[in-house]
Every structure is written in structure tokens, then in C-alpha cells.
Amino acid sequence: xxxxxxxxxxxxxxxxxxxxxxxxxxxxxxxxxxxxxxxxxxxxxxxxxxxxxxxxxxxxxxxxxxxxxxxxxxxxxxxxxxxxxxxxxxxxxxxxxxxxxxxxxxxxxxxxxxxxxxxxxxxxxxxxxxxxxxxxxxxxxxxxxxxxxxxxxxxxxxxxxxxxxxxxxxxxxxxxxxxxxxxxxxxxxxxxxxxxxxxxxxxxxxxxxxxxxxxxxxxxxxxxxxxxxxxxxxxxxxxxxxxxxxxxxxxxxxxxxxxxxxxxxxxxxxxxxxxxxxxxxxxxxxxxxxxxxxxxxxxxxxxxxxxxxxxxxxxxxxxxxxxxxxxxxxxxxxxxxxxxxxxxxxxxxxxxxxxxxxxxxxxxxxxxxxxxxxxxxxxxxxxxxxxxxxxxxxxxxxxxxxxxxxxxxxxxxxxxxxxxxxxxxxxxxxxxxxxxxxxxxxxxxxxxxxxxxxxxxxxxxxxxxxxxxxxxxxxxxxxxxxxxxxxxxxxxxxxxxxxxxxxxxxxxxxxxxxxxxxxxxx
Amino acid sequence: xxxxxxxxxxxxxxxxxxxxxxxxxxxxxxxxxxxxxxxxxxxxxxxxxxxxxxxxxxxxxxxxxxxxxxxxxxxxxxxxxxxxxxxxxxxxxxxxxxxxxxxxxxxxxxxxxxxxxxxxxxxxxxxxxxxxxxxxxxxxxxx
Lengths: 522, 143
Hints:
The complex is a heterodimer of chains A (about 525) and B (about 140). Chain A is α/β, with parallel strands linked by helices and about 525 residues long. Chain A contains 14 helices and 16 strands. In chain A, helix 7 (about 205-220) packs parallel to helix 10 (about 305-335). Chain B has a domain at about 5-25 and about 60-130: START domain (Alpha-D-Glucose-1,6-Bisphosphate, Chain A, domain 4). Chain B has two helices and seven strands. Chains A and B meet through loops of A and strand 1 and helix 2 of B.
């Protein structure tokens, strides 16, 4: 019997939405307590700021260039390396409950395993494995899938359809009649992707994911080793939490976030100092990626809309915190607490009003790149609580899981087990993280590479639809925490910039050949 | 903003253009290589396919030209404001060919949905012809 692992992810959650990270809007006592007893990371960085590449990094422990999922809509090969398969082969019971998204959602042909498994009615699908042979899909012997809303092929949608069909239409429709991300606003302010959702709280997908996790844990033997990835679809848009919970954070009482410049002139001045895609998206003259509504023009967003989005997001974060609390209570009831490692993080952040923008895209700044990450090691491991300021990445999760399980870390993993202190990070030379963005949407190509190191974030652009390859961004995280002053062309930091760019180029792994094909929008 | 989205996928296959065309130019063979299509019924210039979710999709065959080795069709379902699918097989000599599958559609997203699946279909065709699973040299490609 070894250490068990509860791996909790959310979707599109900012660092500053947790109380333990200084957030004031959401009450998150459960995760805050995990942070107090464990390790809180202040500079956790994703290797991609969109779902499918980032989640593929978490599963494989590889950079985007290596696992090959270069944008949303590119499916991770079913026989790609998987840390869950490693743990499964080591005797762990393995489950993935909630949002997976290693394969596209928009799949009318129902050709991807993630979209087929609920219809098949099986716990998993036997599939080819990395290195040969067959085994459970990506190493998980129990799959229960959910995503945003109540339509589609996944388990949650089928559950709602069977048990509460009257609730299906309560959710916001994430996509519109043309299958584009919906721009409609159905809250109080007309903010896109906001809706008052009259669904019962118990039927909402956050509580569904927690309950399915509890159900799975309840079926395990007391001495089973287990790895459970509990993956909440929230607080990703749409922002449509149960209407009964809106009293928690009245949007009219919400202060505007620090990252939102109230004056349009200030927003435009800040954006104009950044590479061209920033201002062009803001003005509505460029749609570079599928992840934001093409019919929505950020420049038209009002301060009240920013308030309402932040309020709805905070409510969803609170519901997740309470759901985590329910699962931890079940773990305590089973007597496992001392032997369970709990890791809480997300796949990427959300702009949430920063610079007058929402959602995500080729924008490598803290809103999307600074992630919540908490590791509460098993009590039996006797790890001292700590705060780690060294940059760590989601690429480091897979080797952390193998280390916890006492399993040899496979050579194909490219990260390092998470450091337990800054001294540990220094000793092991953990001092930089890489992030990449690639997208190609109907002739608009965008290619971005970033290094986070020595308190700086340095971003380069490859030639594409709106870049000639000379543009860049350079921010001091200490002096400019909101990344408003782009110092790329500042002669005073030119040598630093050159060093960071050289280090970035030397560190990037080669791109997978042949490149995987884009097979769907998302 | 462009009006119609266009997506193209292609593969070089180590098999003759005649063999590949003989197979893909037969509109009933679609379930054997296009992912998520379980049935294809042809009646004159009408083809009805059934996709993985069980939904029947009516299509109209526009071109089936064995000289050009070009097959074109359009999905007739009301959801599309425009759709044109084009399959071309080009002879590269030495028993090699290039097969291209272009999808033009409005709404735009459907070009990616169908075009993406078509890419997987072309990979499957390549696998079938190059693995020996699909006999060549008889200009039918049928196993």
C-alpha cells in the first residue's frame, strides 16, 4: 500500500481567485487549508494557455512540441505516453472524472473515444498503449466525462437527459447556431457567455463531478492504491452557475480587477505597446483563434460587464471549493487522509477583464500564465509546508506523480518532480519554464514562444499572419506585475532580452514530425 | 472577412492513381475509410450517409469524373448555407499518387469538422493501401 493521489484540476482559473493567493472575491477555505498544510506555488506556468495542449502536457509530462497537440482541435494520439498508464501498470486503480479534452468535443461523427465511451456504457475503452499492447484508454480504468453545459455525448449530458431533461435548456449555449463561440449575453449586463441558470445546485456539473468521484472512491478496497484525476469544467466560460448561488457575490459590489484599465485611452495605450494581435483583437479586426466569440468586440465591453463576469467566476470557484471539501471528507471517512497527496491546479488562466479583454488567446501574460498550484503531500511523507517562488510548470506534474507513487520516472517525461521548497528548486536547477502557442484558423497563423525566468517573462513571435518575426514582449514580474510596460525595445534591458531569447531558443525541444493534423475547431 | 471557409487535407499514397481512384470514386465505399460513417446508400446522384451519432445526412453527387479522377458532392442538409466537398487523385508516376480532399463550407466551423475528419480518412486510406490490406493492381481497390 503506497501513497494515493487525488489530482484536482479546474478549467481556466486565475491564480488570484484563491484566498491563499491573495484573492478577495471568492471564499476558498478548503483549498486555502490545503495550501497552509502543504506547498503553495507562486509561479506555476502552463506550457500552453489553451485546454487540449495544456491537458496533454499534464498527462504526458511533455512539451507541446513533443506530444504534438499544437492547438485545440488536434487530438492527442490515443497511444501517446500517459502517466496514468504508468501508474495503472504499477498497480494503481485509475480514474478520470470530469473534463478530459484530449480529443475534440465537436465530433458529429462520434469517432473519438472520449465521445464514444458514454454511449458504449463501459467503464473505459481498450485502446493501443504507448510502447505497444492494449490497455484502458490512456491508462484510466474508470472514465466519467463532463464538460461545460448539458449537451453532447458525455456522461454528464446523458445523465441530465435521463434524470432531469427539463434542466438541459437552463445552461447557456456555449456555441451559437453557426457553431461559433457564442457572443450572446444573458445576465444583467449583457456580458458574453453569462447567464442566470435556474438549474438545481445538486444537478450542476461541479457537484456531479464531485459525487461521481465519491462514488468511485466508495467502490475501492481500503488497501487499494489509487490515482484519481477529478477535473472540474468550471470556472471556464460560460459563466452560468446555479441561480440560487448568485447571492454569494453580488456583481454590483465587485471592485474592478487591478488588471482592468478603466479608461479606454489607457487600455488602448497599453495595448498599442504590445504586438499587433492585442489591439487588433480588442478592436474586433482580428479573429486568430476559436476560443473567443468572433462576433464579440472587446472594445465594447463595459466596466459592469467586467464586474459581472468576475462575480460569476467567483461563485463558480466557491462551488468548486465546497465540492473539493465533500471529496476530502469522504477520503477522511475512509481513513485515507494521511496517505493521500492532493494536488490542485488548472490548465490555464483567464484574462477576465485584464487589458479590457476576456477569454484566452495568444497572450502570454499573468492572466493566462500564472496558475494556482497547491500540493498537500501525504502526511506520512512528512514534507514541511512551504511557499515556492521558483517557476514550475504543469509539465512537472507527471514526474511528481511517479515520484509520489515510488515508480521510476520514464525517460519520455520532460519535466522535474515539483520542488518542495525554493532551496530544493535551487539545488535541482529548476529555474525556468517554457510556454508555446500555435494556431491556424482559416488562413490566420499565430506562433508564440515564451520563457519565464529570473523574474522576467520574455515572449517571441514567429512569422505569421500579423507578425514578421521581430516582435516580442518583455516584462519584469517584480516591477510590472500587471505587464503593462513592454520593455522589448528598451535598450536598458537589451542584453537581458538577448540572453532570455537565446536561452528560450536553446531550450525549446524539436517539433514533432510529421505534425499532427487539426481535426476539429475544439 | 472571407465568406466561405476552406480546408484541404492531402496524402501521398504508394499506390497507383488508378487503384486509389477506383476505390474512392465509388461513392458507396465511404464507410470503409471515412471515420465515423457507418453507412452510405446511393440512388442516382443522391447519397445518404449515416454518421456515428446515428444521424442520416443527405448528399448530392455533383461530379464523378474518372478522367479527371475528381469526385464532388454537397451536403443537402439544411444546416449548411454552403458546402462543397472535392476529392482529387493525382498521378505522381511510379505507382504513387496524391489524394486531396477539399471542404468548402458555411458555417465556417463545418469546414473544419468535415475537413478534419477527411484528414483522418486519408490517413486510413494510405494505411489500407500501403499495408497490403487493400489489393492493388486490379484497378478496383476492393478487398
